[in-house]
Amino acid sequence: MLWSKRERNAAIEAHIPAMRRFALTLTRDCHRADDLVQDALVASLSNWAGLRNPDSIKSWLFAILYRRFLSDVRREQGRGEHYPIDEAMGLAIPPEQDERLWQSEALRAVALLPEDQRTVLWLVAIEDLAYADVAKMLGLPLGTVMSRLARGRERLRTILEGGAVIAMRKMK
After folding, report:
1. What sign results for the dihedral spanned by CA atoms 61, 58, 115, 126?
2. CA 11 vs CA 3, 60, 61, 106, 159: distances in Å
């Protein structure tokens, strides 16, 4: 499918908020998340011909973002940088007061998960991507995605100490 520049930009722009949420989940820092999204957007525009299926634009953009994140992590591994998570609380749309506390608690609990579990949980439960898309995006077998998701859900339940449990959807 040939896209006009306007159609391409509109298709990409529609996914920027979700990309930013995912980047924040990965980096735990608002400024680093913004930089990561910008790098991923530049890469997606310069590699637009690499999009094989227009219906999978979201998972394609997320895959680019995730690969950029992994490259950054490898490059910075020896530096031992700190990733603050306090800024993450200000990104959500303001909910009702009683839900605000729960959402804050849930975000903190998700931030405590190991990166591999947090990433899979975020992509499946929050970004609503299919297991197969997540597996392809992360370069993992489907079974690994499913086991990381199950372990992440269980750890999240443990962290929340039997309180409110995030409703997760069934396998697609």
Report:
1. positive
2. 10, 12, 11, 30, 37
Among 3.40.50.720, 3.40.50.1370, 1.20.1090.10, 1.10.10.10, name the CATH number for the domain at 96-161.
1.10.10.10
pTM of the model as a whole: 0.62
What residues have CB less than 8 Å from 66, skipping those under 6 apart?
22, 26, 119, 137, 138
CB 115 within 8 A of CB 72: no
| CA pair distance 123, 22, nearest whole angstrom | 8
Residues in CB range of 40: below 8 A, 6 or more apart: 19, 23, 61, 64, 65, 68
User: Scanning the structure block, which residue is given the tokens 């525009």?
Assistant: 45
Calculate the average pLDDT of the chain.
81
Structure confidence at residue 15 (pLDDT) = 94
Condensed to tens digits (0 to 9), the pLDDT of residues 72-127 reads 888 877 665 554 545 444 544 455 665 666 667 777 888 889 999 999 998 998 88
Looking at CATH, the fold of the domain delimited by 1-80 is given as Rna Polymerase Sigma Factor; Chain: A (1.10.1740)
